Structures are given as structure tokens and as C-alpha cells.
Amino acid sequence: MLKPTIGQLERDISNQIRSFYISQLGQNPGKIICHFFDTQLVISIDSSVSRIEATLAENNHLRLAEVVRDCINAIIRPHLQNLIEESINCSVIDLVSNTSFITGTTGILVMMEVIPDVRNSETIPKFKHKSVPNLESD
User: Fold this and answer.
1) Can you say whether the dihedral through the CA atoms of 25, 91, 14, 96 is positive or negative?
2) Considering its fold, how many domains does the chain have in total?
3) Biggest alpha carbon distance in the chain?
4) In the sheet where 40-45 sits, what is the strand order?
5) Which residues, in sequence order, are CB contacts of 136 under 8 Å at separation 6+?
6) In this structure, is residue 83 part of a structural domain?
7) Rg, the chain, Cα only
8) I need a surface site. Which of 28, 90, 99, 109 has the fewest CB within 10 A?
9) Is 124 inside a domain boundary?
10) What domain range is 93 assigned to?
11) Could you tell me if residue 136 is inside a domain?
12) Is 91 within the bounds of a domain?
């Protein structure tokens, strides 16, 4: 089977996330952008705030809206991680997300063990990694 290009993989993940939001959250998000950077995947989901979250936020219940969003993120995190792992055919080390009630956008950062196996891996931007200080040393 022919390996996908990085662009095809990014579009596939975007489409799968859209389908997940529609089928599992009953919500059709706006534009979804996925972009790989070395062993990281950045995902932006426009119009990801649900009606109930927006209503809470608009009526001076922002903290409650944030709690609802935190619960939603905790519930969907393993599903999104599994969806991404199946798409890229490698393990996800971590997945973090945050939603802005100001812009209505969710940002997701996915850290992977390796770069996905694609036809054009040379087009994936590479980061120059710096050493991370050991915070556990005495």
C-alpha cells in the first residue's frame, strides 16, 4: 500500500476529528487545521465551543463553562489520542488541549514518539531541540 503524503495525513486527521465532533458531541466545528512539526502535531479547531458553554460564558458563568469544557476535554482526550495513533500508526506520548471562550477555538498539541511514516517526510518542519534541564536533580 502506498504511504500517504504529510498533507494527506493532515487532511485525514482533520476529517476524522470533524466526524468525531459531529457524531460524539453533536457539533459541527468550523475550520480544522492540522500541521506536523517534527514529532509534534498542532491542531486548531474553530467554533469548537458548544452552545451550552457559550451560553454559560455569555451569562457571567465563565468558571462553570470552563469546568464543563474541562470535563468534555477529559472525556474526549483518549478518543482523540486513539484516533490520532491509528491515523499516524505510532504512539502518542502526550496530548494537551485548551479552549478559548474569547475566540471559540480549541488548540491541541500532540507529542509523538517518532515522525509519521509518510512519502514526503522531508517536508515536515524540524525543530532544533534544546536540552531540557533535569529538574529532579538535587
Assistant:
1) positive
2) 1
3) 53
4) 32-37, 40-45, 105-112, 92-100
5) none
6) yes
7) 17
8) 28
9) no
10) 6-113
11) no
12) yes
Report which of 113, 80, 121, 84 is spatially closest to residue 97, judged by C-alpha positions: 80
User: Which residue shows C-alpha cell 478559548?
Assistant: 100
Cell of 120: 514526503
**3-class SS of residue 10:** helix
For 39-58, write each residue's pLDDT tens digit: 999 999 999 999 999 999 99
Give per-residue pLDDT as tens, 18-30: 999 999 999 999 9
Q: Which three cell numbers stand for residue 90?
A: 505510532
47: left (phi over 0), alpha (psi -120 to 50) or beta: left
Task: Check: CB of residue 133 under 8 Å from CB of residue 122.
Answer: no
pTM: 0.85
